[in-house]
Amino acid sequence: MNSKFRKILNILSIIILCSGIVYAQTTGKIAGKVIEKSTGEPLLGANVIIPNTNFGAATNIEGEFYIINISPGKYNLKVSMVGYADLIFKDLEVSVNRTTNLTAELSAKDVALDEIVVSVDASSEKKDQTSSIKNISGENIKMLPVENIGDVVNLQAGVVQGHFRGGRNTEVSYMVDGVSISDSYTKDNYKIEIETEAVQDMEVITGTFNAEYGKAMSGIVNIVTKEGSNKFHGSISSALSNYYTSNTDIFYGLKTTDITRNQDYKLQLEGPIYGDAVTFFTNFRFQDNEGYLNGINRFQVDNYTDFTHSNILNGKSTPWDAVINGGTYYSEHTGDNSYIPTNWMNEYSVMGKITIKPFTSIKFSTMYSKNYSEHQRFGGGDYAYKYKPTGRRTYYEDSDFYLFQLNHIITNSMFHDLKFSYRHSLSDNYLYKDPFDPRYIADNYGTSGGGFITGGQDKGYNGVELNDINIKYDLTWQVNTNHSIKTGFDYSRHDLAKSTVIVRDIKYGSADQDYYHYDSLTNKIVFNEYEPEILSTAVTSDNYNKKPFEYSAYIQDKMEYEDLVINFGLRYDYFNSNTIYPTQLRNPANQLSYPSNPERMSEYPMAESKKQISPRFGLSYTLGSAAVLHFSYGHFFQMPPLFALYQNSRFLIPTGNFETVLGNPNLNPEKTVQYEMGLWYELQKNLGMEVSVFYRDIYDLLTAVVVTTYNQVKYGYYSNKDYGNVKGMELKFDYTFDEFTVFLNYTLQYTRGISDNPTSTFTRAGQNMDEISKLIALEWDQRHTLNLSVNYAHDNFGMNLTGTYNSGIAYTYKPISESPLSKQTLFPNNQHRPATFDLSLKGYYDFTLSEHYKLRLFANIYNVLDRLNEVLVNEITGRAYTTILTESEKATFKSNYNDYYDTAHDPSMFSAPREIKIGIGLFF
Predict the structure, then answer these.
(1) Which of 161, 383, 533, 606 would suit a FRET pair with 863, their CA atoms being 20 to 30 Å apart?
(2) In degrees rounded to 5, what are phi and psi of residue 372?
């Protein structure tokens, strides 16, 4: 996609945002039967309409009707017929890809009673559920104490930290209005963030999913955005938050008076542009968060420390001399010891949509969404910067998403959608973007001591730019009351540009690079001036531009009978990496010359295309009026992340062992076969229980195998080799009583596999460890997961309490060398971390200012109990913030500012402390 076209799209987006709008791209259906109440006979010609819309139908000779292509939301449904009292179904819920079934019983008209108001029974909403699906309305999301869509997803049964039913986090497809927004480069996240206030309905599928869904093996998150109304509405809000904890020894640097530490501003507008024909919806959010972790500014980037060589200055005394164990060592620390935020984040998102309805049968919508963020990380390896928080790289994410859709109702029983989307995303990280920036200093300052980094800068640049074009077509045909056929195709083209800039001093390797002198005026060691050069031809540099493409087609039939619903479909997927590959892996770049042995030399043909057919099947059977049984089975395929196909695309192998991993353009799709059986049962009115059991076999998972070149250098090569399986049970309860709603879910799960991530086997080989030959627990294996949410809403007041319990994910216990266990072979993930528990609270109170204006005061409290949840642990002790110090470590540790235990006191090993967020909003 050239820059000129992108500029045109940006101009169009500005126009959209000025006038705004949304149209829900995925829809649901209402179907049922109208009968005479006293006799049970079907009524022919009864009118069934959704008031104030163009949706309606008339019953056939069997009294049956259906209304298709309905946007998600709550509706009133009116059933009428001459001689009978009107029947009104109040607050009928329509969800994405679901059928709301009902039976309307009409009574002879009574002069005293012209209409009767009823509600649909719970089993009618579950009748067509053939697998584990959770539809969450925007109204329900609005009440949860959450900050983003990911928080909502993690509250669902079967989900552990973004992993659906034990799969890797790369196996989930995130969609907005039916179009994928998943990051095809890494597949472990999504680049487009839709704010929770903009969600009309969200479909979370953890079980088997229909043939219309592809490019995923574990689950689907389908977000349907709100539609602009024909009346002008809006809201503006501001919120501030800070952390209030009794654990200030762990979360150092937090001040209770710093009420503006985290700031959150939101604006939302919707309404008509031209009556009902053109409407708009816009949403904007800006966040400036300093986070809950701080560093201590003891060292500056140009400080130098040496705790290795005694008397480095030949006996010269300086204010920074450190006398340790009888030796004199050198340590500069010119920082002011102030606290500096280290996990800060600045982010904004903006979304605008326009819907145009020139005719009752045609809708056109256009959408633009932009997300931009910049942040720094702190924890794990970044904790080494505790005393030198400056000079670290910042991570930048910039994404633009454009969606154009045409929806055409051909007849009352047939409609189709044509969608075109374009997404541009840029992810990069650097300290200063220009590698020749004069603020960069000599590499020699990059020293460490006392277990922490004490000087220097984080140099270099990594960037990934991705442009995705997608065309999607879907046709839905309600053949009759029993069959609904859906078919379509999908085409995507990716334009991937990877950039790695490796920079070093032009004097690298020479005596001039290490030359220094002691400046008595500044009392500092001064190295020669830094003169950078870019190593564009370095063996380890990774720069390429690739343009893979893929397409798919599917057909499915939803067969709905009185007590039985069957979903059956087939999906075809095609992928082409559109690049070359080396034929001789022992000499992939022909760095070794064998003129007399051509079989030892690589050739570079185009990689093979990949094709798959996936069957999908599901059924549900209604057992009386209070129970629904379901069973489903399916094959699911997806290509590995694009980085695994193209990494080190020049195929150059360094001279050392285990220094690189080559991508493989001939990778096969990963495959999952899943079985599920479940039962929903209405225990009593307004209280439903659902239990599901499932089993998954996962084949051809991505892994890096070890290849040895002809000159005996070992490197990694991505392949399809790993296997895993998952088994488990999900239990869900939903309860509604007047102004109370409660949901609770519990997951019991066993996750097994060969390795956690694609490079685990390669890394073990590099450490002279045997390859794992048995199924082990994977890192996200968590035996018990429990989520509870209690909500109360009354007129102008509401409150929600949400709690989560996690029994603890796996970790690898590694005993100290003095322990007898160190002589035994211990597999990875042999123990589990401590359990975690979190309780969050949300409340609001509305003040009515006038008929059209409302002022809201609200508060969110996260981690109400200020619990120290251990999310990371020390591999020796199995607990956070602890370690075991051996005698040899005591003898070799040198520092004049901390002790050895400081290296284990990483506050990021705990989840965030108590955070109180208070805000005010105006609604109109």
Answers:
(1) 383
(2) -135, 135
